[in-house]
Amino acid sequence: QVQVVESGGGVQQPGGSLRLSCAASGSIFGDYTMGWYRQAPGKERELVARVSNGGSTDYLDSVKGRFTISRDNARNTVHLQMNSLKPEDTAVYYCHLIYQHINYWGKGTLVTVSS
């Protein structure tokens, strides 16, 4: 059974920084992609950033240059460094892992950007 658990999040002022972390546990023995999605109130869930097993990354256009995703394969963890935060970054952020064509989701962590 694979599980993913997020940590981090909270409240930050515009222009500030936050770091999210996600740890995957369970029977993971091959390639997988991990990433972060977010869902703001009244909006659909959207991909923020993801990193493949080989290190290739994808970012939502609106976070490029501000957010950085990194991965530690030895620990099955992924981090999202969020800088220059904007109020529109406010959302619940979900960790996502896809392994052997199965999607695994964390419970989500709230990020609020407000002055």
What is the makeup of the main sheet? 7 strands, mixed
Task: Report the end-to-end length measured between terminal Cα atoms.
Answer: 41 Å
- Taken as a percent bin, the fraction of beta residues is over 45%
**Helix share of residues?**
under 10%
Indicate the overall shape: globular
Contiguous uncertain segments of 5+ residues:
none
Radius of gyration: 14 Å
- Written as H for each helix and E for each strand, in order along the chain, the element string is EEEEEEEEEEE
Overall average pLDDT: 95
User: Which structural category fits the helices and strands?
Assistant: mainly beta
> What is the number of strand segments?
11
- Number of helices in the DSSP assignment: 0
Give an overview in words:
The chain is mainly β. Helix content is 0%, strand content 56%. The protein is built from no helices and eleven strands. It has strands at 3-8, 10-12, 18-25, 32-39, 46-51, 57-59, 67-72, 77-82, 91-99, 102-105, 109-113. Strands 2, 4, 5, 6, 9, 10 and 11 form a seven-stranded mixed sheet that branches. It has a four-stranded antiparallel sheet with strand order 1-3-8-7, with no helix packed on it. It is globular. The termini are far apart. The model has no long low-confidence stretch (mean pLDDT 95).
Q: Characteristics of this structure?
A:
seven-stranded mixed β-sheet; mainly beta; 115 residues; single chain; globular; 56% strand; four-stranded antiparallel β-sheet
